[in-house]
Amino acid sequence: MAINAPRGTQDVTPSQSYKWQFIESLLRETASLFGFKEIRTPTFEHIDLFCRSVGDTTDVVQKEMFEVKAQKGTDIYALRPEGTAGVVRASLEKGLLNDALPLKAYYIIPCYRHERPQAGRLREFHQFGCEVFGANSAAADVEVISLIDHIITLIGLKNVELNLNSIGCPTCRAEYHRALRAYFEKHLNKLCPTCIERMDKNPMRILDCKSPDCAEIAKDAPVAIDYLCGECSDHFDSVQKRLDSIGIKFKINTKIVRGLDYYTKTVFEFITTDIGAQGTVFGGGRYDGLVEQLGGKPTAGLGFGMGIERLLMVMEAQGIEIPTPKECDLYIGSMGDIANIKACEITKQLRDEGFYVECDLMDRSVKAQMKYANKISAKMSLILGESELETGRANIKDMASGEQKEIAFETELANLLYDAMLAREADLLADRIGENAFADLMGMNG
């Protein structure tokens, strides 16, 4: 009986992995441009880390965490459902917050949540995230939002809207919680059992409930920005002014509270309508109390996460093309063992020069080798046999046009491949900027 991939996971095959490599490279380069350095944390952590940080009233902790128990011992671990908690734990454990602040860290990691698999929502998913520690100012909020905006611009995403809200600090949130409890108590008989349990601990979690009945009741609930204290209100105003000053458009969405308990003050989501209900592509905000909550000194924090699978879905829905992987520059066919040894020798030499070259590894016939060269989209091919080895000359073939040219393969191959590469790059540039502009650039128009 065949063994299939677990439900809610997916294989990324070679025909798709180049898309991931492109996105990951772009994300790393952008994070570096903004001064972020990579951090790597374990795939599993002590379960208490997520209960204390994410919140024991959240869906993530109550319904979605994968628990891991060792065969020996009593420790209980959890596969990480998100990235921030592990970064805070590592920063405290390794003393990173004792260095120059702000600390800026990014990660590209797999995460795990046991929920019903659907488009844009898997049990194993991959997250790109950035975290900033030590910066209280609204400038830091705008910094991470600006980073996301930069990514969106580079990729060319359309129909993505920044939704912004503030959920205040513990001081003003206490009054807000009282208002929420007073409101939801009027609808207690219609709330789901989970939300009834949440009433005392954290009524804000009811606003994030996925039950249609609870969501309908929550539509008319009080909103957090009506209960902000002076400091939180000033901070939120400053975020908006700074976004206006750098031309990042946004709308206030009082329904955004995010699904994790550690958030304070600014919360935001970049939302698209191009992938149905799962429309949040980037989401994040402040978590100024999290470091202290996990045993550190009071330290401001903020960040965001982005699902790579969901980003790829949006790009596909919008018809955004990802550059295809490098194609084979040359296939060297061979007839007989001696010719194959020579083909392997030349292949290594050309690879050392930086060219993508293939030769026969399957003991195929020449006809089968040429079929394979076509399948891998080799740009050129060359066949070595007894006579070619004797004369040191062979015909190199342009696979697209069929044109052939005799060359001294020991001395001319590298230069010929280099010239072909330059010609292709010139053609790409001409396509991008137009033939006339390219001719002017090269001094070909008078």
- In angstroms, what is the radius of gyration? 29 Å
> How are the strands ordered across the major sheet?
1-5-6-11-10-9-7-8
Structural class: alpha+beta
Q: Please tally the helical runs, counting DSSP H or I stretches of 4 or more residues.
A: 16
State the total count of DSSP E strands.
16
Query: What's the story with the biggest beta sheet?
Result: 8 strands, mixed
What's the overall average pLDDT, rounded?
A: 91
**Approximately how much beta-strand content do the residues carry?**
15-25%
For the termini, the CA-CA separation is 71 Å
Which residue ranges are poorly predicted, with pLDDT under 50 across at least 5 consecutive positions? none
Helix content: 40-55%
Multimeric state of these chains? single chain
Overall outline: elongated
Give structural notes:
The chain has 446 residues and is of the alpha+beta class. The protein is 42% helix and 20% strand. The protein contains 16 helices and 16 strands. The protein has helices at 14-33, 47-53, 59-64, 84-93, 138-155, 170-185, 193-201, 212-218, 230-245, 290-293, 308-317, 337-352, 366-375, 386-391, 409-433, 435-441; strands at 37-38, 44-46, 67-69, 76-79, 103-112, 124-133, 160-166, 251-252, 264-272, 280-286, 301-307, 330-334, 357-359, 380-384, 393-398, 404-408. The strands form three sheets. Strands 1-5-6-11-10-9-7-8 form an eight-stranded mixed β-sheet. A five-stranded mixed β-sheet has the order 13-12-14-15-16, with helices on both faces. Strand 12 (330-334), helix 12 (337-352) and strand 13 (357-359) form a beta-alpha-beta unit. Helix 1 runs antiparallel to helix 5 (138-155), helix 5 runs parallel beside helix 9 (230-245) and helix 15 packs across helix 16. The protein is elongated. The model has no long low-confidence stretch (mean pLDDT 91).
